[in-house]
Task: inverse folding
């Protein structure tokens, strides 16, 4: 048997790209890493595997704890982690969702070709940067009061539609039609609402960005057609989450759980794994609050997308409808959802936690929106600003192997502190423009350095592994044209 | 014994390691580390504001204090710097009580990055000899 030794943790190869850490000690189930040897070497370079092992100690963890090919060290639960926790006698863990609840990505299509945009990149990047709030304290597309926040939390993208920030098609092309019915705004604290009210429609900073991209390759013509993607087409990718409202909600519930369920917490190896037992009041409250924050994040991305349409109208001097600016899809990569899965031939309900992992339901799954049900849901994988991003389709093997999940991005390999030593924002920006015709504009030069292409894993390799495993299949690749960030 | 902090390597996030002669000094040093993780150059402007936090343990007090600073940053639109801390130990059934202050630098005056939240992951707060040490990972 092929094994891989990672500093005290031995992984056994189960099949190509599948590695298992056998159950030992307090682990409730084994853990599996879905990666090539190349990616596994990077994953083994920090505390990812230790965190993955720790995550299997959560009550109700079923089958195995999962690490995606782009996994890296996070806090508590690893980034790139997936865990299906039994919804009846398991638990739900805010730390295994992450602070940025429903951090995710959406892609908007256009009918413009790269040639239509060439020559106006500078004007476009300036106009986007001017009009899309980013960074810390940059405000939002709308500034609201707490009553409006409640409407957003309970209404999701429907609120945006009713208030002129969306069209009906935006709802039908979003997961769950941009609305979680389980949302309960009363479970979100006043503090969280106060943080959120000035941030509705804002990118934030860190690795969040808005990017105008061109489609460079369509690998699967049939699914490409179903998604409406073709080579040379201009698309817009938006990556952000639930901002301060989501961060505060996670923090609030971590503390509540710490106080209420100390017994369970004491059995866990990391306090950041704090979990509320299924069926407890706090599990119910957190689920209602998390779903409300999911709605908030969808509205956030929707407002940014709609504002982008208006920016394109200014720059290209025609209505956005004429430019075919339609939502392809919106995916979440920090989320827990109650889902039905079949394990050992038996159907059961699970809180599937995906932290830095994307749902990837295949063709025919009833939860894939009708528009895409015959080909599988679109999965959007953002790369770094110097490399491409990918559109995948949910793969046939995802339900069996990964509880219907695949990767979420390139995954970092270099720390932010090291990146700032190795790179200078201005140099990175100039090099991208001169050598690759990518126009970058950011609030902070340090952010550009921290997000330099060299700090990420090779997104091509991550996607290749996903495709080979059949959990998320390659449909198209895109390359950046303009990028704005906080 | 000098009070100091440094930013430590972490793949995706930022960690602050701080030392100080007292519990209060190390709390303030971690808070200054949080400011440094948000912004490289801090201008000499802004007025001071108060921070008041109560919690059931030392670690929880540190967590809630840093969470409060992040919350106040967002709602005040100011980056808290030059942090000062006074801590009262619990008497009987009371909680730990922190009374502090910070200088709030208007966010429009700095190129600050969003530190999303404080985490409990790998958190350390301990006294060894005459020195207090803390290690805190922040989500960026």
Result:
């Amino acid at each position: 048997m092929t094994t891989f030794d990672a500093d005290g943790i031995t992984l056994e190869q189960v099949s190509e790209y599948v590695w298992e850490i056998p159950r030992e000690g307090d682990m409730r189930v084994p853990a599996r890493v879905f990666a090539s040897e190349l990616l596994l070497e990077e994953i083994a370079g920090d505390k990812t595997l230790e965190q993955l092992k720790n995550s299997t100690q959560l009550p109700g963890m079923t089958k195995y704890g999962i690490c995606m090919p782009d996994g890296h060290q996070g806090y508590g639960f690893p980034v790139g982690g997936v865990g299906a926790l039994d919804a009846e006698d398991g638990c739900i863990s805010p730390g295994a969702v992450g602070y940025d609840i429903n951090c995710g990505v959406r892609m908007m299509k256009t009918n413009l070709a790269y040639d239509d945009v060439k020559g106006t990149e500078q004007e476009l990047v300036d106009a986007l940067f001017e009009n899309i709030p980013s960074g810390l304290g940059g405000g939002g597309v709308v500034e609201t009061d707490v009553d409006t926040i409640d409407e957003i939390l309970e209404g999701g993208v429907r609120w945006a539609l009713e208030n002129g920030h969306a069209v009906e098609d935006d709802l039908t092309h979003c997961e769950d039609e941009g609305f979680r019915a389980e949302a309960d705004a009363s479970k979100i604290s006043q503090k969280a609402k106060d943080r959120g009210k000035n941030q509705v429609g804002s990118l934030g900073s860190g690795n969040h960005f808005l990017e105008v991209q061109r489609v460079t390759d369509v690998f699967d013509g049939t699914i490409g057609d179903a998604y409406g993607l073709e080579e040379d087409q201009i698309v817009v990718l938006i990556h952000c989450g639930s901002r301060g409202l989501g961060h505060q909600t996670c923090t609030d519930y971590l503390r509540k759980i710490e106080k209420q369920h100390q017994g369970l917490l004491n059995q866990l190896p990391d306090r950041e794994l704090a979990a509320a037992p299924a069926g407890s009041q706090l599990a119910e409250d957190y689920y209602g609050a998390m779903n409300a924050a999911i709605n908030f994040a969808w509205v956030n991305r929707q407002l940014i997308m709609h504002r982008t349409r208006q920016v394109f109208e200014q720059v290209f001097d025609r209505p956005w409808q004429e430019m075919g600016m339609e939502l392809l899809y919106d995916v979440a990569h920090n989320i827990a959802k109650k889902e039905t899965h079949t394990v050992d031939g038996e159907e059961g309900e699970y809180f599937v936690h995906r932290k830095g992992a994307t749902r990837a339901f295949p063709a025919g799954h009833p939860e894939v929106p009708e528009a895409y049900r015959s080909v599988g849901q679109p999965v959007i994988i953002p790369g770094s600003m110097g490399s491409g991003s990918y559109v995948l389709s949910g793969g046939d093997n995802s339900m069996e192997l990964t509880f219907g999940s695949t990767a979420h991005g390139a995954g970092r390999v270099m720390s932010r502190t090291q990146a700032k030593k190795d790179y200078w924002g201005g140099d990175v920006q100039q090099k991208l423009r001169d050598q690759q015709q990518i126009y970058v504009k950011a609030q902070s030069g340090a952010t550009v350095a921290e997000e330099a292409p060299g700090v990420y894993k090779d997104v091509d390799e991550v996607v290749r592994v996903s495709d080979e495993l059949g959990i998320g299949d390659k449909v198209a690749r895109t390359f950046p044209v303009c990028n704005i960030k906080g | 014994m000098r009070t100091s902090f440094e930013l430590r390597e972490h793949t995706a996030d930022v960690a602050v390691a701080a030392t100080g002669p007292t519990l209060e000094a190390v709390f303030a040093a971690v808070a200054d580390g949080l400011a440094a993780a948000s912004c490289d150059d801090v201008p000499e402007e802004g007025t001071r504001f108060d921070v008041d936090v109560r919690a059931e343990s030392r670690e929880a007090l540190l967590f809630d204090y840093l969470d409060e600073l992040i919350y106040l940053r967002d709602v005040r639109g100011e980056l808290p710097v030059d942090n000062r801390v006074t801590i009262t130990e619990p008497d009987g059934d009371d909680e730990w009580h922190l009374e502090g202050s910070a200088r709030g630098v208007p966010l429009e005056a700095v190129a600050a990055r969003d530190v999303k939240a404080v985490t409990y992951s790998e958190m350390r707060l301990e006294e060894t000899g005459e020195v207090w040490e803390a290690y805190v990972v922040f989500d960026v």
